Amino acid sequence: GAVVSQHPSWVICKSGTSVKIECRSLDFQATTMFWYRQFPKQSLMLMATSNEGSKATYEQGVEKDKFLINHASLTLSTLTVTSAHPEDSSFYICSARQPVADTGELFFGEGSRLTVL
Amino acid sequence: GQNIDQPTEMTATEGAIVQINCTYQTSGFNGLFWYQQHAGEAPTFLSYNVLDGLEEKGRFSSFLSRSKGYSYLLLKELQMKDSASYLCAVMDSNYQLIWGAGTKLIIKP
């Protein structure tokens, strides 16, 4: 089946540094990928929709200058958390959807747990 | 506005059956998904319903009634490993997924 791979799984960084998280669709082309954030014991919160070849669409309240999204190819989207602070510590998850003509099923990456010291 | 409602938490006994309900109000409808999420892990796909009726897949079944804006996930022969959060999500007319807050299912021996 379709697989979405996310890297790194765990990252610890110092406050003020930037962290890049990659999301790859391994066996299908994803024109759209989604980035979520999840705090402990809470549901997924959609941060932005990443569109191949164009600017990402950010949800209300998400700082686009802080969470940079690049979707340079049909199989890769990256999320960069710039100037990270401890409050940015969270579980970040990407997902990609198969073309609507198929099942339209959403596949998730393994998630990236970010800890900012 | 768009809204997905599901119970916050449920408790069931190992070997029993549990039904997790989900009601929704969205701008259009292009299918309803159920995902399972264990603590600290990403969600995994369980089921997809776009037509009314019951879809059975092993111990898990999912039901949809579009006219009522209602779905349920039925888990049979519960096992301890079924302890997880179960997320209901609806795809709206723009093919955006609207997520419920999730139902934490606790299985007791």
Secondary-structure topology with pairs:
The complex is a heterodimer of chains A (117) and B (109).
Chain A: E1 4-7, E2 10-13, E3 19-25, E4 32-38, E5 45-51, E6 57-58, E7 67-73, E8 76-81, E9 90-97, E10 106-108, E11 112-116
Parallel strand pairs in A: 2-11
Antiparallel strand pairs in A: 1-3, 3-8, 4-5, 4-9, 5-6, 7-8, 9-10, 9-11
Chain B: E1 3-5, E2 9-13, E3 18-25, E4 32-37, E5 44-49, E6 53-57, E7 60-65, E8 70-75, E9 84-91, E10 97-99, E11 103-108
Parallel strand pairs in B: 2-11
Antiparallel strand pairs in B: 1-3, 3-8, 4-5, 4-9, 6-7, 7-8, 9-10, 9-11
Quick recap of the structure?
Chain A is mostly beta strands. Chain A is 0% helix and 51% strand. Chains A and B meet through β9 and β10 of A and β5 and β9 of B.
What keywords describe this structure?
heterodimer; A: mainly beta; 11 strands; B: 109 residues; mainly beta; globular
Characterise this structure:
The complex is a heterodimer of chains A (117) and B (109). Chain A is built from no helices and 11 strands. Chain A is mainly β and 117 residues long. Chain A is globular and about 40 Å long. Chain B has no helices and 11 strands. Chain B has strands spanning 3-5, 9-13, 18-25, 32-37, 44-49, 53-57, 60-65, 70-75, 84-91, 97-99, 103-108. In chain B, the strands form 2 sheets. In chain B, strands 2, 4, 5, 9, 10 and 11 form a 6-stranded mixed beta sheet that branches. In chain B, strands 1-3-8-7-6 form a 5-stranded antiparallel beta sheet, with no helix packed on it. At the A-B interface, strand 9 and strand 10 of A face strand 5 and strand 9 of B.
Which two chains share the most extensive interface? A-B, 21 and 21 residues
Helical element count of chain A? 0
Main pleated sheet of chain A: 7 strands, mixed
Instruction: Look at the helices and sheets of chain B and give the structural class.
Output: mainly beta
Largest sheet of chain B: 6 strands, mixed
Stretches of chain A where pLDDT is under 50 for at least 5 consecutive residues are none
Order of helices and strands of chain A: EEEEEEEEEEE
Calculate Rg of chain A over CA atoms. 14 Å
Oligomerization category of the chains in this entry: heterodimer
Strand content of chain B: over 45%
